[in-house]
Amino acid sequence: MGLQHFTRCILLALCILSQGLAKGADGFACNWGTRLTHPLPPEITVKLMKDNGFRQVKLFEADPDALKALGKSGIQVMVGIPNDLLATLATNVNAAIAWVNQNVSSYISKNGVDIRYVAVGNEAFLKTYNGRFVNSTFPAIQNIQAALIKAGLGRQVKVTTPLNADVYQSDSGLPSGGNFRPDIQDQMISIIKFLSQNGAPLTFNIYPFLSLDADPHFPKEFAFFDGSAAPVVDGSITYTNVFDANYDTLITALEKNGFAQMPVIIGEVGWPTDGTANANIKNAQRFNQGLINRIVKRQGSPKRPSPPDIYLFGFIDEDMKSIEPGPFERHWGVFNFDGSIKYPLNLGGGKQLVGAKGVKYLPKQWCVMSTQANVQDPNVLADSMSKACTYADCTSLSPGSSCSGLDTRGNASYAFNMYYQTMNQRKDACQFNGLSVITNINPSPPQSTCQFKIMIDLGRHEKKSTPSSAAPQGNVHFMIILLSSFIFNLILSLFV
């Protein structure tokens, strides 16, 4: 009798735990971008997530090293499919089956990766794409769903598609006027209906920073959760920040089209720390602290008090990310590229951000403009800087950025050093027409946010198998699953 009672208790506990995990992970969610010249080793990145309470992560593509490091970690994964694969997946179900087998099934079965979602495309309906992906997105979603079912993962892994907030609009300028863009209305309804029938969520990216940065007349305080801007009154609802107003515009659009209960995930939201005047540490800390406070309190919006899962964008900086939208694109991380803390954040319950451990760096030396350098021809300096900034990240020199206040010599030193570090401090990487020299003295300006970086030493971070720190929690969790043109303009601006 006692043994039977004990067995029932164990089974009941496992069922409760399994149900709780199926609903979502406690903690925070983030986006892990991997466009870096000197990436933080995946196992250190995963450890950094766990140390800071991140229990869900979105990958923009099926990066093998990232997925292997996430195996048995206890972190739930959304794995993305890039837009350039949509056409193939839309027209060939066998291609979808092959993609799922290679990038989902194998990592679940062989590595114990807890993949919960496949994100088909990324902001495929952006107006700037001029309809390029409009006709391929929905068929690709259908084929990936069919592939998941064929793989026996139809219940465990859900399909979704991250969309930009520009897929909906409001003619009245108020959330109550929300509806989907007329040019994609039919595609949106087809996608939403299909996802709803398969118990899958919609994913949307909302960026208050872009609203502020794109419009000089945007009320700055309305971009933040603790702002003092004049509220927006919409009938009986008062909005005090643009995030809630934007999100409820979406909820209204769903309601108007018969999908009032459609589950929604916020796939990206955050604030960059460099690249423009509005992208700075003070604003980023203010915005992200307000966002985290909402997540901790499980606070929703006026129209939907139940909060969505929110994936913070991003986890670490990416010095190879496209800067077509703006130089700030490489600076969205809560952490620097090496996992060091940019600014403090209170994570609730007395917890603070902690930085990465075990990171190994190149020697403490920098490439700077020589004090003896005499530039007779300014074109020589411009050519040298152009070379450096073509192959390295000089976005911190952009107008309004952290290093925009440097003089000509400082600009050149910053550019030379970024190239030198990006090239792993090769001796020939500090040769700029006789203008440069290697120094052991840190050239970073004192009491400034402008930092002359030292890169991660990739040679000292040998590839390892997933470390034992990927924890008992991950192993238990896995068992439960088993059981159930910028550079040219920049250089010119530096000489104006």
TrEMBL record:
Identify the EC number(s). 3.2.1.39
Q: Which SUPFAM superfamilies match?
A: (Trans)glycosidases
Question: Which cellular component appears as one GO term in the record?
Answer: side of membrane
Q: Where is the X8 domain?
A: 365-452
Membrane-topology descriptor: Lipid-anchor; GPI-anchor
Subcellular location per the Swiss-Prot or TrEMBL entry? Cell membrane
Q: Which GO terms describe its biological process?
A: defense response
Q: What broad class describes the main subcellular location of this protein?
A: membrane
- Which InterPro entries does this UniProt record tie to the protein? GH, Glyco_hydro_17, Glyco_hydro_17_plant, X8
Q: Which GO terms describe its molecular function?
A: glucan endo-1,3-beta-D-glucosidase activity
Keywords, sorted A to Z: Cell membrane, Disulfide bond, Glycoprotein, Glycosidase, GPI-anchor, Hydrolase, Lipoprotein, Membrane, Plant defense, Signal, Transmembrane, Transmembrane helix
Q: Which SMART domains match?
A: X8 (SM00768)
Q: Which family does it belong to?
A: Belongs to the glycosyl hydrolase 17 family.
Give me the segments passing through the membrane.
476-495
* Name assigned to this protein: glucan endo-1,3-beta-D-glucosidase
